[in-house]
Write the structure tokens for this entry.
Amino acid sequence: MSNELAQIAARMVAPGKGLLAADESSGTIEKRFKNVGVECTEESRREYREMLFTAPDLEKYISGVILFDETIRQTASDGTPIPELLAAKGIIPGIKVDKGLVDLPFFPSERFTQGLDGLGGRLDEYHRLGARFAKWRAVIAIGEGIPTSQCLRANAEALARYAGLCQVHGLVPIVEPEVLMDGAHDIETCRRATEATLHEVFDALGRYRIGFKHMILKPNMVLSGTDCPRQASPDEVADMTLTSLRRTVPVAVPGIAFLSGGQSDTAATANLNAINAKAQAMKTPWTLTFSFSRALQASPMALWRGRAENETAARQSLIQRARLNGAAAQGKYDPGMEQAA
Ligand code: 13P
């Protein structure tokens, strides 16, 4: 089993490839559809996602797709179950298994991720449906007096218990502690919060006997807060991000797949590229790639607008972003490639 998990993890972060996060909850995708004037129904969500997953050449740049519970049970228009459709292209199906965020009592503005009850049984079912990796997202906010140690610890413990269940039930856990970019804080504040978060997470993973070789870390990049008057350059983002990772992430972890977190698609790609360019010079031990939702889907969704006649353009823009991020995952991206494409 552990050999199999190591192989899945290695495939997830194969050179020049990353993950497509398509696991938006029904509420989240409804907001995104609304922005582009699309009615959100089970069928429109299915159609949209089928369009993405059947984009020609997706498998060249995308190693795995994170699905939502609804999608892993759906079939493509020709009747093929979605996980089977992905697997046939050599793309590993994955599944979001947390049940979202709740307020942490007595800790204003801090939240906790739920979903551990009955998780083992759900993982068995997802495995039968074809999933080979899972994702659990914890959210850490930056603000006056936060994050607190209680919030960090509560979320880290849940991530560790989730990761252990995944490894026992045959799925590679994506461990996702997201430090949000919302706020006017500077990049140094984000670095401190990210380091504190990752320290707490890897401490919990170690105490719960998680196999570091059989997991993928999905962290935020270290960024200036959205409302910070001075926005850090890709070079600074790369420095700060790698500093945080080198101080906290064990060498045995095979790969790190960043979330985009609300950055524009081109900013996320430029930052991923800068991180990889520096990481190569430093000879960091992990593969550093992407696991983006918004930074891969913003442009195809805006082009699609729910119309069949826009599908080709939407698919082309997904492939362009996937290809450019695949290049960035190897430090081979140049902003000039945006124009050329
Ligand atoms: P973003 O890339 O839009 O941050 O989403 C990644 C994700 O999977 C959030 O859990």
In short: The first helix runs from residue 2 to 12. The chain is about 50% helix and 15% strand. The mean pLDDT is 98.
